[in-house]
Write a structure and sequence with these properties.
932 residues; Rossmann fold; Heat Shock Protein 90; Beta-Lactamase; alpha/beta; five-stranded antiparallel sheet; seven-stranded mixed sheet
């Protein structure tokens, strides 16, 4: 900053000096030229120039410093006369011929001045007249002294500039030292302060210009030292207090550990108390509900029926509260486990709707369902818990909806190779929820509002349990609502794809192809539900929203072709019903257009219109609409025969079996024992009862039973011990199914039952339908004890069991046919599907064994076991079943998979044997031959 202005100023001054010097030299040259011209102009006025005059003038000029040569030349550049230093002819000729040489021209070292002799002046040289035209006098001068002057000026400029710069550098250096040296000292002092060294303050004498700054820094350092001293004191004091606190915390931790152990013990006591309480409460409830159902079948007067219905509903309500409390307790402790078994989605929905339909009909609400057609019917998961979530959300929607409808929609979010994510939405037209209510909606024991509009009873556990169950299904749950605009509860669930179910493009899709239908419903949502199913099944639909338009729209539709079916809602509009008008429309459709009719009505309307529809081609179907039931009714009305893939119902099979089934019932409670006995007798099943485990073992060793119903908690020998002793005394071929009767929530205890040798369980209170299903599963359809109705109707002495299962054979054709209901095509198809999947299954098992991945092993083995259940492959089924159970235990208990490696290798060997057996075998020809 200091040198730059000085350098610039020196350069400017030097430049000015050089310019002035140059102008001075140029002025000297001009003056010399003018002097020469003046001298010779004076002699030309004499009109006579002779040699003596030229000599005289030239001697005068040459005597002057700087003049070099004077000569007389002609136009061609020839020298006529010359004095002074010689000038070369070539140089003379080049100078003379230069166009710029008119008066004077200068080079680096010389200047040439040419003075033409005027006309009329006579020039005489050596008494010889040389004429008076074309002659010039050339004067050559040196520039040495001018060049020396120029160099002197340049040297002076350089010297002066160097001196000025040196002086400027000297003062700049000193000024810089005065500025920066104190700053370095201050910086060093600040660094010491920053390191906590406050014992040597910065001296103010170090920099006279920075004395105020140094004093301020020293004051700041003094304050920092004081703050540091205070901080150190505080740290020491805090450390001492912390040491005391840590000692206190350590004591508290010991106390908390003792309290935690006590809480764990108390939790175990609570769980045992809840389980025992459940057992003690469910036991009398079992008798109340069971005998109430039996009493309903007797003749009662209306008042008795009313009292009985009150008793029955109260008992069911008490049972629901007990179940909610137990489910919530298991969710809190993390002991609630989910099953993984076949799920028929639409059947689960229908069961949930059946449970809630009476409450909805009482409030005149419509329950609607819309299920995407591309969702498979057969999935894997926990149907009971899925139904429980749906039931809780439906019950909540009905509770807070007074008019309108409740819609259940099921859609597919995403789909993997072996899993599918479904989203369930329950939308109501109720009073809605504000933001604060939504935030605490899923809290336990919480009622949203204590006002009259929210006084609907309940424990406040339904939604909390639903959230806990959805979390365990690896799904999400939420609500969308605004006050006065209803609410939509939604949740997602990840279900497995059933590998044993036949894949299809869509459920029942295409079964009504080329069918034209009319659909009337005054409610848009109800109409959408019906048309969704009909269009999904391939039918074309004409929608009618106004009752008076039915006849007119039918006439228009019939002009383009035959209408095959009409689906009508019984109500003319949302609030009115006229059975006479309905009968008139039905007659018109039947008689004028030959269109069969399906009438949709609530139970109360069905009772009114059933007599009115006598003699018509109309079928009345109750709401809510069930997908399978609607499809069945439509097909019946259209005369379409759809092959049923479902098995015969348990009720029909048990009715055909009549009294040929013998069941042993074991229970220490007389009421429960009598109830089970009465329910079995109602189904025409022979039953023998005992009240303890020891008698059950002795009786089973002397008599043959098709099924044993075993209570768990009994004095002396409990049900688990009795089952273990029973299994130890029987062979595999004579294995009797044992089903646990328990008042506990048995889902999480299922592993204990299976390890004890039990096959299934029933939770009290036991219903007649549950007993029918158990008998159907473990008596009529069990491969180990399975008998056809004709065999069961034979006398006991002549009874012949199902085909003997040969465990060591890869394939048992008789067993395959037996499992396929003696249908060779079905047996061949099931076995073929299994054989095709075996190579991939073996590779997946080997990969999972290499990775020691228990979850993958469990999934693959479970799928293999499911496929073996419907094929006659006894050895593979036995191995996969045992491994399935062992892998489940390993996953639940966290044990390593290495101990199961020999069993897994045995399973792979069995798979390879079955693959080898299938090579070169034509299954169609094999099953075409009588296996007997």
């Amino acid at each position: 900053m200091l040198l730059a202005p000085a350098v610039i100023m020196c350069l400017l001054l030097s430049l000015c000096f050089i310019v002035i010097t140059g102008q001075f030299i140029h002025q000297q040259q001009l003056q010399r030229t003018s002097f020469v011209a003046t001298v010779f102009d004076g002699i030309q006025d004499t009109r006579l120039v002779d040699q003596s005059l030229l000599n005289q003038i030239s001697m005068s000029l040459l005597a002057v410093d700087g003049f070099r040569t004077v000569m007389l030349i002609n136009n061609e550049g020839n020298i006529l006369w010359a004095r002074g230093l010689p000038l070369g002819q070539d140089k003379l000729r080049r100078v003379v011929q230069a166009p710029e040489l008119q008066t004077s021209v200068c080079e680096m070292r010389r200047c040439y001045t040419r003075i033409p002799i005027k006309r009329g002046v006579k020039v005489i040289l050596s008494n010889r007249n040389i004429g008076n035209t074309g002659h010039s006098i050339l004067v050559v001068t040196d520039n040495y002294h001018l060049n020396i002057l120029n160099y002197d000026a340049l040297i002076a400029v350089i010297g002066t500039l160097a001196l000025c710069l040196a002086v400027a550098v000297f003062f700049a250096q000193r000024f810089r030292d005065e500025i920066t040296r104190p700053l370095v000292i201050i910086q060093s002092g600040v660094q010491k302060y920053s390191q906590g060294k406050f014992d040597s303050p910065i001296s103010p004498k170090e920099g006279r210009y920075y004395s105020k700054l140094i004093n301020s820094i020293n004051e700041l350092a003094a304050k920092l030292k004081g703050a540091q001293d205070n901080l150190n004191y505080s740290i020491e004091q805090t450390t001492a207090e912390l040491r005391e606190t840590l000692e206190t915390v350590e004591i508290q931790n010991i106390e908390l550990d003792i309290a935690r152990k006590g809480a764990i013990q108390a939790s175990k006591v609570k769980s045992e108390f809840l389980a025992n309480t459940s057992h003690e409460i469910r036991t009398p409830l079992n008798g109340i509900l069971g005998f109430s159902e039996l009493l309903k079948k007797t003749e009662l007067n209306p008042l008795q029926e009313d009292y009985l219905e009150t008793i029955y509903e109260s008992a069911k309500g008490l049972l629901t509260i007990i179940n909610d409390i137990l489910d919530f307790s298991r969710l809190e402790t993390g002991k609630l486990t989910l099953e993984y078994k076949p799920v028929r989605l639409r059947q689960v929905l229908e069961e949930a709707l059946r449970l809630q339909a009476p409450a909805a009909h009482e409030k005149k609400l419509r329950l609607l369902t819309i299920v995407d057609h591309d969702i498979p019917e057969h999935l894997l998961g926990d149907p009971l818990r899925l139904k429980q979530v749906l039931t809780n959300l439906l019950s909540n929607a009905i509770k807070f909806t007074n008019v309108g409808h409740i819609l259940i929609s099921v859609s597919k979010e995403d789909r993997a190779d072996n899993q599918i994510t479904l989203q369930f939405r329950i939308t109501d037209s109720g009073i809605g929820l504000n933001q604060d209510q939504q935030e605490k909606l899923f809290d336990a024991f919480t009622q949203l509002d204590a006002s009259d509009s929210r006084t609907h009873g309940g424990t406040g556990l339904g939604l909390a349990i639903a959230k806990g169950l959805v979390d365990r299904m690896h799904g999400e749950i939420g609500v969308e609502s605004e006050p006065g605009k209803g609410a939509t509860f939604w949740f997602t669930s990840i279900l497995g794809r059933n590998p044993n179910a036949a894949s299809s493009a869509g459920y029942l899709m295409g079964t009504l192809r080329n069918t034209r239908t009319l659909v009337y419903d005054c409610s848009l949502m109800s109409r959408t539900e019906i048309t969704h199913y009909l269009r999904g099944w391939g039918a074309s639909v004409t929608e009618i929203a106004v009752f008076e338009d039915i006849e007119h729209k039918t006439e228009e539709a019939c002009r383009s072709g035959q209408i095959h079916l009409a689906v009508l809602d019984a109500q003319s509009d949302d609030n009115s019903f006229d059975k006479g008008r309905l009968r008139k429309i039905v007659d018109c459709l039947n008689q004028d257009y030959s269109i069969p009719v399906v009438i949709l009505a609530s139970p109360s309307l069905e009772r009114l219109i059933t007599p009115e529809m006598t003699g018509t081609h109309a079928t009345i179907m109750q709401r809510p609409i069930f997908c399978n039931r609607l499809h069945q009714v439509v097909c019946e009305q259209l005369g379409i025969i759809i092959p049923r893939s479902d098995r015969d119902s348990p009720e029909a099979l048990v009715e055909r079996l009549q009294e040929d089934i013998r069941v042993l019932a074991v229970d220490d409670n007389p009421a429960n024992l009598r109830l089970v006995s009465e329910l079995l007798k109602e189904m025409h099943v022979k039953v023998v009862t005992v009240d303890n485990g020891a008698d059950a073992i002795r009786l089973s060793q002397t008599s043959q039973f098709d099924l044993i119903l075993m209570d768990i908690q009994m004095p002396g020998m409990d049900g688990l011990e009795a089952t273990k002793r029973l299994r130890s005394s029987e062979s595999r071929e004579e294995r009797t199914p044992v089903v646990a009767l328990t008042a506990h929530a048995a889902n999480e205890q299922k592993s204990r039952f299976l390890l004890a040798g039990m096959d299934d369980y029933l939770t009290k209170p036991v219903s007649e339908n549950e007993l029918r299903h158990i008998i159907d599963r473990w008596v009529t359809r069990n491969p180990f004890t399975q008998r056809t109705p004709s065999q069961l109707s034979a006398p006991p002495a002549e009874f012949t069991p199902a085909p003997t299962i040969h465990i060591n054979k890869p394939v048992d054709l008789k067993l395959s046919l037996h499992l396929a209901k003696n249908k060779p095509d079905l047996a061949e198809e099931m076995l073929s599907m299994l054989l095709v999947s075996l190579p991939d299954t073996a590779a997946a098992i080997e990969q999972a064994m290499t990775d020691s991945n228990k979850l993958n092993l469990l999934e693959v083995v479970h799928k293999l076991h499911g496929g073996c259940c419907y094929c006659g492959v006894p050895r593979l089924k036995r191995l996969s079943e045992e491994l399935d159970q062992q892998l489940q235990n390993a996953v639940e208990q966290g044990t390593p998979v290495e101990p199961l490696m020999p069993k897994l290798r045995e399973l792979i060997v069995a798979i390879q044997e079955l693959i080898t057996w299938s090579d070169g075998i034509d299954l169609k020809e094999l099953f075409a031959v009588d296996p007997g």
